[in-house]
């Protein structure tokens, strides 16, 4: 656990044998850097990001809980992403699939937040790096209500991928899916039959998406793979130029070099009875793009 010089925030740094590394802020439980062995920054962080409460850090992987978007009474995307988490000294046994290069954080309900969301929970987050530098996030959320009450929640790993040029990016795996279009008051629409490309603002939640999504950054000759478990939906967002100008913690031209794609649980909220625990995993990896063999 070190204090980040630039932001004054405490962070955990995880370095894997081959040089891949990940940095996680206790603020928001937020992965902020993910570097491969070539020291490339694979996640986008806005140069205008605010690192002070109550603003969530614009970039990396935001943990949106217990609400996604404005679907509910809480602030946009809930409060987990702008609260202080702590190191989990007593992590429960995680599924064998997480590598032994990991860090564990925990986030619990606070007395003040109980007023806005009257439920007790334990949210344990494991951030793990595989031997090949894949980044795996496992969230385990347990209902610890003493009053026997179940609770419902929404969730998303809002992951800001760094891309070379958004107009050269294609996303495969979302073809023909139904999605909720946030630009049309959440209206349910159906995606076309081939890969998703970007020419204007996009703000969609794809429903019941397959376990693997592929994001091809043609210019950087890089392909991201996103695998998910326990999370049926996928969020896709790029503000494009006009919307970007209205976002204070977002540089005007930055929409060109980012794409927010994340495994989520949006359409139907998750219900947990007391003592029950939900688990949601997202694993992202970088594979050399097939195009690189052609060029
Ligand atoms: O995940 C997509 C989205 O809900 C978009 O509608 C956009 O608002 C984005 O999240 C960013 O939200 P934020 O509260 O972080 O500015």
Automatic annotation (TrEMBL):
One Gene Ontology term from the biological process aspect of the record: carbohydrate metabolic process
Broad enzyme group: isomerase
Keywords (A to Z) from UniProt: Isomerase
Ranges in a coiled coil: none
Pfam families membership: Aldose_epim
Gene3D superfamilies: 2.70.98.10
Catalytic activities: alpha-D-glucose 6-phosphate = beta-D-glucose 6-phosphate
InterPro entries: Aldose_1/G6P_1-epimerase, G6P_1-epimerase, Gal_mutarotase_sf_dom, GH-type_carb-bd
Gene Ontology annotations for the cellular component aspect, listed alphabetically: cytoplasm
Binding site for substrate: 58, 76, 81
GO terms for MF: carbohydrate binding; glucose-6-phosphate 1-epimerase activity
Keyword Isomerase: yes
E.C. designation(s): 5.1.3.15
Family: Belongs to the glucose-6-phosphate 1-epimerase family.
PANTHER family attached to this UniProt entry: APOSPORY-ASSOCIATED PROTEIN C-RELATED, GLUCOSE-6-PHOSPHATE 1-EPIMERASE
The protein's name in its UniProt record: glucose-6-phosphate 1-epimerase
Species assigned in the record: Oryza punctata
Taxonomy of the source species: Eukaryota, Viridiplantae, Streptophyta, Embryophyta, Tracheophyta
């Amino acid at each position: 656990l070190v204090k980040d010089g630039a932001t004054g925030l405490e962070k955990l740094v995880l370095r894997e044998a081959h040089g891949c590394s990940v940095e996680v802020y206790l603020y928001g439980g937020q992965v902020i850097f993910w570097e491969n062995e070539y020291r490339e920054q694979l996640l986008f962080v806005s140069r205008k990001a605010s690192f002070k409460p109550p603003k969530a850090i614009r970039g990396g992987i935001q943990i949106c809980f217990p609400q996604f978007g404005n679907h509910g009474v809480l602030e946009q995307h809930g409060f987990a992403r702008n609260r202080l988490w702590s190191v989990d000294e007593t992590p429960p046994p995680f599924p064998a699939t997480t590598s032994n290069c990991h860090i564990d954080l925990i986030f619990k309900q606070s007395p003040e937040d109980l007023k806005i969301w009257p439920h007790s929970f334990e949210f344990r987050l494991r951030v793990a790096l595989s031997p090949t530098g894949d980044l795996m996030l496992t969230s385990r959320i347990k209902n610890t209500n003493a009053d026997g009450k179940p609770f419902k929640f929404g969730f998303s790993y809002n992951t800001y991928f760094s891309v070379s040029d958004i107009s050269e990016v294609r996303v495969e795996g979302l073809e023909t899916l139904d999605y909720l279009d946030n630009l049309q008051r959440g209206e349910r629409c159906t995606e076309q039959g081939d890969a998703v490309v970007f020419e204007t603002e996009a703000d969609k939640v794809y429903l019941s998406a397959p376990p693997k999504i592929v994001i091809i950054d043609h210019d950087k000759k890089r392909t991201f793979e996103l695998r998910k478990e326990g999370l049926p939906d996928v969020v896709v967002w790029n503000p494009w130029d006009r919307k970007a100008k209205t976002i204070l913690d977002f540089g005007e031209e930055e929409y060109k070099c980012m794409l927010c794609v994340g495994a989520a649980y949006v359409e139907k909220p998750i219900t947990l009875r007391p003592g029950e625990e939900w688990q949601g995993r997202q694993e992202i990896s970088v594979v050399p793009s097939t195009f690189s063999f052609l060029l």
